[in-house]
Amino acid sequence: MTKGVKKRTLWLVVIFGVCFFGLLARVAWLQIVQSDELLAKAKTMWDANSQIPATRGVIYDRNGTIMAQDDGAYTVALNPQEIAEKNALGVVVKKLAPIIGVKEDKLSKFATKKRSDGTLFRQVEVRNEGWKINDEKEKQVRKLITELRAHTKDRYFNGVVLIDDTVRSYPGGKKASHVLGYFDKTGKAFYGVEQQYDKYLRGVPGKVNYERFAENRHENGGRVNLVPEQDGKSVHLTIDNMIQGYIEEALDEYNEKFKPKSMIAVAVDPNTMEVLGMANRPNFNPNEYWNFASQADFFNYAVGARYEPGSTFKIVTLAGAVEKNMFHPDEKFMSGAVKAGGHTIHDHNYKGWGEISYLEGLVRSSNVGFVKLGYERLGPQRLEDYIRKFGFGQKTNIDLPNEINGFLDLEHQSDFAAATYGQGRVAVTAMQQVVAVASVANGGKLMQPYLLKKVVDPETQKVIFENKPKMIRRTVTEQAAQQVSQYLEQVISNQEIGTGRKAYFEGYRMAGKTGTANKVINGSYSTNKWVLSFIGYAPVVNPKIMLCIIVDEPDLGGNYRRGSEVAPPMFKKIMVNSLKYMNIPYETKNLDREKFITVSTKVPDLQALSVQQATDTVQHFQLQPVIFGEGKQVLAQYPAAGKDILQYDKVYAITDVPGKIGLPDLTGYSLREVLQICSLLDKQCQTDGEGFAVKQQMVKRGAEVVTMFSFASREQQAKQQAEQQVVAKQDAGSEQDDAKPSE
Can 108 be counted among the known catalytic residues? Predict the structure, then answer.
């Protein structure tokens, strides 16, 4: 071995020796000094976390009808790696795009998506079109997956997959959309109860943490840490789904007929200020919140829009004048025009009606009469005190987002004069108006309105929070409020001159007031654009429901007098349906049934009784039993046990699950009876007309099957029968003439 070779060999030994001892030193450092830190890092790499989503709480109406809940859904995902391996890009894009409603070029980008290192992803969700799809689309996608496996000749091909998911579902569609709001696919709550009570509804997601091994598998013996999810709480509203339905139905009908800019309807229990129903037009479908014409669809006009109230505001002036003993119904004044605050104010018919009484002034809605009562007698300061006492100029604090104050700025004498009849520098929200007039209906108590009845833990059924009626202050004395109610009743009941006479229904005593306010356009009052309104309650004594209707810019063909065709008939339709549904007995004496039925009784408890026992019990109380179902014992009844009803009225009992019981033939039944039976059997029913059912038919409305009922009064039926008899006689005569031999 030469000297050079020996030298190179020695250097190699030295180098390898240094590397070896360096490696030993590094291993010692890692094993001894950094062992704890490295072990912790390793554990984080071994650990896998999976989030367990919490179920969002269910929203119910006051009677337990579901208004919003989480439902199963599916998300479409692509596997770009498998699609590329099977050369299936073209067929996947072409066939999947029309199913989920996405453009082909957009879907192609999802199907070829790559990581930063240039490799294809193994899973890409198709958002937003393929995100949380419904049952119909899910069926089509599953069919496509089968077709793709046949096309690729690979029964395990997963280029397109469906991932289990959940979506917020609103069974009523557009029904009560502004009350509910919506919960979007990203997990955010918008508007309404969904936003207001998100803290109760949302829940807390759970988490499972486990040691993972190759291919992300969890093997026996591995460490598992589980933090269970906490589902959202159930929210029970004051809304009555049936009354909400009557409101929606009427709004749809009159929206189509008069095509206004917007419409509002709010129904409450005036004694507690529980909101029984609330709706607006335009509206939206929370199931498809992304499909809307404009942002106005989401706007809750009932709490977020100001308007000059017009003559409905006269109720405040009247209440103050009655309490201060300044309203004398038989006292006379000259209608037509009056000077006040430096201006001449006219009645709505300009010339007036000559010398009339103050009660007639109320019934005819005379501006002049109310200027005299509010501006001349009460005086500006006392008038403003009453206006503020009734809650105007401040929020009602209803439990809904985006409520506004309204507007009240009375500075000049002319402002006070105009305020007496609801125009000028006063603007209100529908909810403010409802709260104010409810204080007249309930005997002078200004109450805070609310939508949340209670919050319940769905697992334990424990009530976590329950709302109670809250009185803010007294507006007028109980005696004054009762007098005002009697005067307002004549606005409806006076069929000759009452401005609200088209709201009249024989059988229920109602109190109310019309309103017609010219809109301000470019600083001046328009001559052909109006806000029409009607607000009232029933029965007059011990009211059970109050309703406010507001219609902005209806198409009246330039004739404001047609305003009586809008709000009062809407009010009547909703109120009559609601009162009958609530089982409020008729009050007038001239109806056939009132001539001999005057005694009331309490409904017995039929729960768990046999059919025969229930029948005997009902008949013992001089009531009529009506049994539905083939079961052997009573599962539910209507009216509820303990309710006061008139003797000889019907008591309905069901002995089977409502879904298993078909709707019987109800022709000949009264409107109230039909509504009761539909509610009891949980059937979707719609009504047209009043009186007694003359026609019953099944109609398909989208995915739902609805039973349509047509009603007519006894008089209408008798008239139709008489006309049919005349036609029949004429036909019979013609047949006899035809049978005669020719002469």
Answer: no
